[in-house]
Amino acid sequence: MSPPLITLKDIALRIDTQPLFRNLDLVVRDGDRMCLVGRNGSGKSTLLKVITGTVEPDQGDRFIHPGCRVVYLPQEPDFADAGSVAEFVASGLTEVDADARHRVEAILAEVGLVPDLSTATLSGGEARRASLVRALVGDADVLLLDEPTNHLDLPTIEWLEERIAQFRGAVLVISHDRRFLERVTRTTLWLDRGVLRRMDKGFAHFESWQQEVEAAEDAERRKLDRKIAAEARWAVEGITARRKRNQGRLRALAAMRQKKAEAIKRQGTAAIRMAEDERSGKLVIEARSITKRYGERVLFENFSTRIARGDRVGIIGPNGSGKSTLVKVLIGELAPDDGTVRLGSGLSVAYLDQGRTALRPEATVKDILSDGNDHVDVHGVRRHVASYAKDFLFAPSLLDAPVHSLSGGERNRLLLARTLARPANFLVLDEPTNDLDMDTLDVLEDILGDYKGTVLLVSHDRDFLDRIVTSTIALEGDGSAIEYAGGYSDYLTQRKTRNRTAKQQQPKAGTRTSHGLPGKPQGSRSTRLSYKHKHRLKTLPQEMEEAEKLVTALEHMLGDPTLYERDPARFDKASKALGEAQARLAALEEEWLELEILREEAGE
Fold it and tell me: Among 400, 457, 574, 586, which has the highest number of CB atoms less than 10 A from its own CB?
């Protein structure tokens, strides 16, 4: 076994009056591949700072092997006075030699960064790539990586995985990206309520280990509760006659009660709920041959898709490929340069945008959730803002905290709380997983799994995509947009098949054409539309438009809060008519959708 490169012994640290660590031990050896997991706020980033010496513990010893070079990648890199990207990266070299410029430019080319670009103009993804390259270019013995995949696109995450596999030193990484951790780690460190536990297996085994530990804790807690109850009964029934000689047993009872009172309970999970509005029509979005350009650059061209009620569609692609732009075009916020987008009826959209524009830096948590009021309407129910904030793990003391003082995970939970308070039947999430801890991700996955509405999701989290989406739109960065059935793993498989058959005219059954429509099996006979079908395709749009107008008029009528009091019979009649009109519109849309698919398959 190689000698330790880093040793922490009996480390303790308090933040204000709260203990963050106690009796913490850690050993890092050459070649270790370790991940550090735990809830947001458990002290993971602080522990890395203790290792680097930027945070001094209250007690304990820290030892770094002489000559060991530790390189630390923080969540928020400091680009002050960095100049160009090349200068920033070169500052990570241990020695400046004649070949330094070439080495820097070579590794920057791998991640698509221009050496002379000013660090002051970098986007979030570019800044993260530059800081990663700086960490990797030097001769480190230990890499400490704090959320290295944040703001990275999938190609860069896969590049990073390969780089770590080639790295010969030790790696200790914090990340919420399950797939990334499964691929790069062989040891799991779990920081939980001030205690650091170690499992000499990779992250893929973490969930079963966590369940075993928590089950053992629950059993021990139940045992302690029973013992306290038995001793309490004895204290009442048997102490009078044996008062003096049983003082020790009384002291033991008091100690058990103290132990229970001081036990740090596991933090609860975020109680995220999603209320659905009235059901939308069968058709949610129909895009035909849409194109979007910026100057001479084509983001996507001649792309078509149909999204039906209940679909969960993922959008993936490199940074800058146009994912957020495609979302805005599909939901009608931006007009396509060519082609058409048609939105279905009865849509109520909840939109969590990547820029988090709803989070004003100087506003407080209370301002964001309830516009500064004491109560907030959540799914039509009036709740105290402190109670609702608690569902998302915000303590009452944080209600008056400004947004700019929150961590990345807290900001994302705050925006989720704001977004999910409003009933919606169409949920649009642009990078919802950034900075969320794994437990909150689990809850969000459960909510989306039970959600009956439609979901449009942009994410670089491969595991999250595999668990949630039913189809994936891939923007490859070259102007192409292709829709595949299934999640990210299905996309990889189908893309390989597609590349092998790129010279063939027809895709195999079960794949998608370049327009995102089901392809015909090779050799299948073309089915021509009958005259009746063609006639229905011409008449259906007018019928759908009339049905939409009727639905809108009835909804406007029922929106009058005084109607029921003034004319209950008219209210009941309108309510019944609205239900019938919505059902008719949904049936028309479904018929039109089926005929459109037939028309595409027939090539007419």
Answer: 457
Lowest mean pLDDT among 36-40, 235-239, 355-359, 380-384: 235-239
Token pair in block for residue 467: 């668990």
Of 44, 279, 282, the C-alpha closest to 174 is 44
> Does residue 275 lie within any of the structural domains?
no
Residues 366 and 222 in one domain: no
For 309-342, the pLDDT digits (tens) are 889 999 999 888 899 999 999 999 999 999 999 9
516 neighbors 473 (Cβ within 8 angstroms): yes
Which domain, by its residues, includes 440?
280-348+423-524
Residue with tokens 């005084």, as numbered in its chain:
562
> How confident is the model over 90-107, as a mean pLDDT?
77
Confidence of residue 497 (pLDDT cuts 50, 70, 90): confident
521-547 pLDDT, tens digit per residue, is 333 334 566 777 777 888 888 888 888
| Selected residue with higher pLDDT from 512 and 562 | 562
Determine contact, residues 344/279, Cβ cutoff 8 Å.
Answer: no
Q: Per-residue DSSP letters for 314-331?
A: EEE--TTSSHHHHHHHHT
Whether residue 299 sits in one domain with residue 434: yes
CB 310 within 8 A of CB 273: no
Q: Please indicate, yes or no, if residue 403 is contained in any of the structural domains.
A: yes
Q: Please check whether residues 57 and 158 belong to one and the same domain.
A: yes
State the first-to-last Cα distance of the chain, in angstroms, to the nearest integer: 70
Q: 405 lies in a domain? A: yes
Q: Into how many domains does the chain fold?
A: 5
- Co-location of 456 and 508 in the same domain: yes
Supply the CATH number for residue 467's domain. 3.40.50.300
Q: How confident is the model at residue 511 (pLDDT cuts 50, 70, 90)?
A: very low
Pick from 589, 593, 587, 598: which is nearest to 344 by CA?
Answer: 589
Question: Is the distance from CB of 94 to CB of 69 less than 8 angstroms?
Answer: yes
Report how far residue 176's alpha carbon sits from residue 150's, in angstroms, rounded to the nearest whole number: 9
DSSP letter (8 states) at residue 40 = T
- Is position 271 within any domain? no
Q: Do 383 and 456 belong to one domain?
A: no
Q: What are the pLDDT digits (tens) for 138-175?
A: 789 999 999 999 888 899 999 999 999 999 999 999 99
Coil/strand/helix, residue 165:
helix
Cβ proximity of 312 and 457 under 8 Å: yes
